[in-house]
Amino acid sequence: MSRPARQFPDIQSFMRVLEERGELLRVREPVSRDLEITEISDRLVKKGGPAVLFENVVGSDYPVVMGLMGTRERMALAVGVNDLDELAQKIRALIDLGGGGSRFGLLSNLPKLRDAMNLPPRRVKTAPVQEVVWRGDEVDLSKIPVLKCWPEDGGPFVTFPLVITKDPETGERNMGMYRMQVMSKNTTGMHWQRHKTGTRHLEKARQRGQRLEVAVAIGGDPALIYAATAPIPPVPGLNEFAVAGYLRGQRYPVVKGLTVDLEVPANAEFVLEGYVDPQEDWVVEGPFGDHTGFYTLADLYPLFHVTCVTMRQNPVYPATIVGRPPMEDAYLIEASERLFLPAAQLIVPEIVDYHMPPAGVAHNLVVVSIKKGFPGQAYKVANGLLGLGQMMFAKVIVVVDADVKVNDMDAVWREVAAKAVPGRDTLTGRGPIDVLDHSSRGWGYGGKLIIDATTKRPEETGSGVSSREGQAEDFAPDAPFVPFASADLPTFDGVVAQRQTDDGYWFVALNKTRPGQARELAQAFAVHPAARGVRHLLIADQDTDVNDAGDVWWTVLNNIDPERDVWHLPAEAGGGGLAWDGARKLPEEGFVREWPQKIVMDEAVRRRVDALWHVWGLPEQWR
Asked: What residues contact 314, with CB distance under 8 A and at least 6 apart?
């Protein structure tokens, strides 16, 4: 029998445990919510450092906590398991309601059914989050220490909001995490993208001629904060409160809002109550330094009117930052990977494992391993994944054999170079793309690439031999690809740095100044003798570190539409390859949208943080 989940009714109880474990630091000296907290927190999360509580935030009476789920271990602790892989075991046990029809078989399912009964939330009459109330003119969001995260952000953004709405027709509740830019003392933007449930609720309210009530919780059980980010399938009765209740093994406590007909987490730190009027003009929101590591540009989004704020007597404001990976959101994504692996396997049973690496910022790259039994199975699995909920946004899917560790990216890219012949074992298509993707052919619509890096059956190589038992003895597999790194690399206009790896990749940083420059480079390099040991030519922008494979892949995956920007190179120099054009796109090339900047912290802020690091009492090892 598994141990009961550890209980953290709120973030403050979770913080106490982290501090006991030496995984939470306190900063007592004054610190600015304008960029300084971001710079400190970014350094800590990228080095696997502790969470940090800023007790003295300039201009606010409330402390800020960062990095609560900023390592794999803390993420596991937050959702009540010893290791994130246990999440898959929990869901697999719930799905597998076997045991047959005998009395003993049914009795064996009682613990699982009891778990399932814990899913609905539990209404309580009083709640810590309603100990202090601001109404009407008392509402002043500037008193809450909302962060300005990055230099070019359009303003301060709430980054850990649990946005709660109810379907105006069915009453089904939804909770999602949508960034919120503070616009005034009592309004924020509401970043509901076109595919989000909040957008559907708002449209239904518009059709009915009514406002949409909204409640935004900040804080609560860490498991609920995670659940708000999870890609929960649209099953009646299954929502974020239910997921948190299942993870905790008990029904989640909620209380009715004071001014809205919505249930809110009883143990949150703050709750913002109000409405969005679908008849009102949308407002300019952004720019925002986003989870892609690039700024998303200013755009129009609905306006949220805050009519009431409730809070604890002594609340803590939890926040997160997103930007260049790795960031805290990578561990939230990994938790979702583990949680939904059994469901994916239920629908696509040959899946062994899958992984969305940080360099792919969730949707840009998915690696999946399979038990292969027939030709074409890699494409069957990849297309199956593209039909599963938010996996429809995946840009590049790499399929590998069952024995490949999907989270070992060095091993994955070796398999790709060795087993995927460019052109023959690659397939492009089109479909929905994350609206935050800045490089797609259209907003929310673009190309996709499937790479079959599995061991090939005879039919997949163009052989006339069948792979049916007893008929493949004479099959001659592909001649092995022999990668090597050349020391004699060619020059080309705009190339600021380049490097070849010993497993068949050529990384190039290009200062692009004219249309067609990347394609010209690819064509020139493809016929150079240095291309003989290369299968993939990755062209990135001039700010990319070619000595850091993660930086190269992160840049290229962000900057490509695979149908437009991944080309099959000629085979003159030995077998051909793929060129990935991850340089910026120009209007002269038919790209009509503005190209965004990579997120970079202001150098003056970096110097100030360096100077104050020891004043804040932060250990040198995390500097």
From this structure: none
